[in-house]
């Protein structure tokens, strides 16, 4: 039985997998060239590493990078971002020389990636701590699956989702030797939190051939009960 490759865009992983169509259909390729609008407009943010001793706040560390509302725009941005597996190679995410990035975040336009934002303050997030022994490309697949499920609206109910964070917790004074993924959501009066969590866990563990991969349970964090 052939081994199903992981959905990773790490160059080393790509060398071991073929993501190309077996037969290029010109009609399909032509449709792919047309603009594909996403359901929501999204913003890529970065959280800059804060220097000890400076009187700075969490908000000071947030940097808005770029917004996108089309699938083509997303892929142009995504191709320039590191995969989580790059962090396991002792590579920090760097924006400018000497400026390290703690977290990459994608949130719906108009929502800041902080608990104090009105859309986040009464909600929470699903937190997944991934140790290096999970496997570099498996971690990539979890991350890619959740991001694509989020912007594509296949993690449901999608209207609950406010954004996602990839946090480097491998080193530093608060290091936990882990990469952390957080899917943030707003308060829902209809009690759909459990359904959203189940949908996310199913999405993140789905393999490229549609089969169910190794499941990874997420911890639920309520924003009203925690502080920065």
TrEMBL record:
Keywords: Initiation factor, Protein biosynthesis, RNA-binding, Translation regulation
One Gene Ontology term, aspect cellular component: eukaryotic translation initiation factor 4F complex
Gene3D superfamilies recorded: RNA Cap, Translation Initiation Factor Eif4e (3.30.760.10)
One Gene Ontology molecular-function label: translation initiation factor activity
Keyword GTP-binding: no
UniProt key word Cytoplasm: no
GO annotation, biological process: regulation of translation
SUPFAM superfamilies (UniProt xref): eIF4e-like (SSF55418)
UniProt similarity note: Belongs to the eukaryotic initiation factor 4E family.
Protein name in the entry: Uncharacterized protein
Species assigned in the record: Noctiluca scintillans (Sea sparkle)
Lineage: Eukaryota, Sar, Alveolata, Dinophyceae, Noctilucales
């Amino acid at each position: 039985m052939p081994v199903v490759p992981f959905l990773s865009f790490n160059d080393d992983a790509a060398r071991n997998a073929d993501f190309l169509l077996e037969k290029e259909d010109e009609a399909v390729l032509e449709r792919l060239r047309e603009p594909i609008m996403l359901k929501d407009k999204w913003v890529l943010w970065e959280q800059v590493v804060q220097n000890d001793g400076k009187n700075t706040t969490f908000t000071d560390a947030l940097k808005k990078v770029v917004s996108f509302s089309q699938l083509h725009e997303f892929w142009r941005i995504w191709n320039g971002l590191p995969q989580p597996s790059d962090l396991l190679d002792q590579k920090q995410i760097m924006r400018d020389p000497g400026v390290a990035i703690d977290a990459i975040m994608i949130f719906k336009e108009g929502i800041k990636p902080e608990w104090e934002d009105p859309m986040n303050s009464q909600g929470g997030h699903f937190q997944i701590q991934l140790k290096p022994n999970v496997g570099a490309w498996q971690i990539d697949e979890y991350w890619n699956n959740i991001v694509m499920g989020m912007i594509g609206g296949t993690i449901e109910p999608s209207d609950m989702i406010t954004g996602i964070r990839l946090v480097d917790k491998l080193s530093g004074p608060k290091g936990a030797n882990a990469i952390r993924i957080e899917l943030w959501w707003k308060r829902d009066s209809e009690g759909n939190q459990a359904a959203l969590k189940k949908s996310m866990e199913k999405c993140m563990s789905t393999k490229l051939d549609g089969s169910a991969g190794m499941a990874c349970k997420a911890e639920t964090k309520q924003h009203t009960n925690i502080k920065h």
